[in-house]
Amino acid sequence: KQLKMEFSADINSLSSLLAESREAEGRSSLKTNQPPKVAEGTVVRKPSDPVSIKSTPSTNKSIWSESEIVSEDTFVDLSDKRPCPRYEFCYKQTVGTEDTILGMSDKTPLTSDCSHLVIKVHFPGYSLKDIDLKVTSQRINANTKTLKLLTYLPVKVDDTNGKATFDTKKEVLTVTLPIVHEF
């Protein structure tokens, strides 16, 4: 008889928990039927409507508005149909014997401990004089008459202290850039 009473008490406790859960669910469904509050720059879209941006006048003291700031994407020529050459990103790390044999430093093989980003771009049939190279802290742009590489870099780099070499036998452009660590 005592076992039945404990069991019924457990059932009653479970029932009250479920009732509370149903009440909370009912309250949250009432909240979701209300329209969302629109903050500055929030995109509001119904499935059938085109995308529109509603923004309120800014109260901050910005010098430029968002529409006046030119992004790098505006310089991308979308009509340029040249194919992208094969390329790869590698990381370079300066290590000594105390790192590799003795394990005395706290360097790891992670990219956060690397000092340089190495970009290898394959330009078959071209020489160094045929390649136009531009590097910013976040992008690389390498072009020839028939190939075009324009891509973001995986890390922020110091574009003023980089080095580029061209291997004429392998027809590979190698760009080495110091990584800017922001921590």
- Rg, Cα atoms, Å: 29 Å
Q: How many beta-strand elements?
A: 9
Beta-strand share of residues: 15-25%
Structural class: alpha+beta
Distance between the termini: 66 Å
Q: Could you outline the blueprint of secondary structure elements for this entry?
A:
Layout: H1 2-32, E1 42-44, E2 52-54, E3 87-92, H2 97-100, E4 116-122, E5 132-135, E6 139-143, E7 148-152, E8 163-167, E9 172-178
Antiparallel strand pairs: 1-2, 3-4, 4-9, 5-6, 6-7, 8-9
Pick out its properties:
183 residues, alpha+beta, 4-stranded antiparallel beta sheet, 3-stranded antiparallel beta sheet, 2 helices, 25% strand
Descriptive overview:
- This protein is of the alpha+beta class and 183 residues long.
- It has two helices and nine strands.
- It has helices at 2-32, 97-100, and strands at residues 42-44, 52-54, 87-92, 116-122, 132-135, 139-143, 148-152, 163-167, 172-178.
- A four-stranded antiparallel beta sheet has the order 3-4-9-8, with no helix packed on it. The protein has a three-stranded antiparallel beta sheet with strand order 5-6-7, with no helix packed on it.
- The longest helix is centred in the N-terminal third of the chain and has 31 residues, at 2-32.
- The protein is extended and about 85 Å long.
Give a nutshell description of this structure.
The protein is α+β, with helices and mostly antiparallel strands. The protein has two helices and nine strands.
